[in-house]
Amino acid sequence: xxxxxxxxxxxxxxxxxxxxxxxxxxxxxxxxxxxxxxxxxxxxxxxxxxxxxxxxxxxxxxxxxxxxxxxxxxxxxxxxxxxxxxxxxxxxxxxxxxxxxxxxxxxxxxxxxxxxxxxxxxxxxxxxxxxxxxxxxxxxxxxxxxxxxxxxxxxxxxxxxxxxxxxxxxxxxxxxxxxxxxxxxxxxxxxxxxxxxxxxxxxxxxxxxxxxxxxxxxxxxxxxxxxxxxxxxxxxxxxxxxx
Amino acid sequence: xxxxxxxxxxxxxxxxxxxxxxxxxxxxxxxxxxxxxxxxxxxxxxxxxxxxxxxxxxxxxxxxxxxxxxxxxxxxxxxxxxxxxxxxxxxxxxxxxxxxxxxxxxxxxxxxx
Lengths: 243, 113
Prior knowledge:
- The complex is a heterodimer of chains A (243) and B (113).
- Chain A is built from eight helices and eight strands, in the order βββααβαβαβααβαβα.
- By secondary structure, chain A is α/β, with parallel strands linked by helices.
- Chain B has one domain (2-83): CATH 2.40.50.100.
- The chains are: A alpha/beta (243), B mainly beta (113).
């Protein structure tokens, strides 16, 4: 389905019904930079796990990604625009509150959503994410031309079919314009951080979890790419989201 | 009902990928699983993927160990599946067994709207 909610950008999203409804709030899945709902979550087996547990799944392709519009102006990728997209999507679907599971950039946006609209977020899961500012310096440089960890990520995803490197560069710059800060943290929302033991991009996740009164779970042997599909990750999230 | 062994090979995961690394089996030899149940978790150079089972059946053999790199088209798993060993009831007359219409391969795309 698509929705044109914030006038400037049309967003494609999945809205998947549970096998049998548990009555629990839907789960909003937010994918990482350069990925899509289908690639990040769908192919990794998440919808099936959540639907079997009785959860409705809402999964947008974030602006600049997948089948959603891909503007090339960096100011359209400030975190607050993503937050507006998500709030508008929940309004459109008539959903009062959700459990949010974000991975990598999606985790950063999940955090921003929980800060901006705490009444809409029941529980918060941040996967593959830490407080380190991976985008430091991106504002002044061309993403992918350096040799930092983010340049590697950028070059990998920019080459994926369907991606627009210009839109992704604009997205990186828009996010870099609002560096992540550990404070304030979302108050009163139970928070879980999950990361692969070999995920360098999520460095400091354990400390961030402690700061915000949350829980940290490490997935043995996994890195930033292959932690997503881990059975441990799914089970930990299911347990955390259960009433 | 009789049993027949069917071997499932690593499918083309798309866009020029020629191999994948087995991360973790979601089933073990002897398990009876349903169609579309999670079968195996693999990693390509681009992403991590859980491959659903194409068959309902009992797992007879796993052809790759964890961390092994498997080329597309190589055997992944063998299932024992139940097959009909008698003509299906309710069919009257002669059923042509040859010249069946060729099966078409259709690439399905998820709807974009």
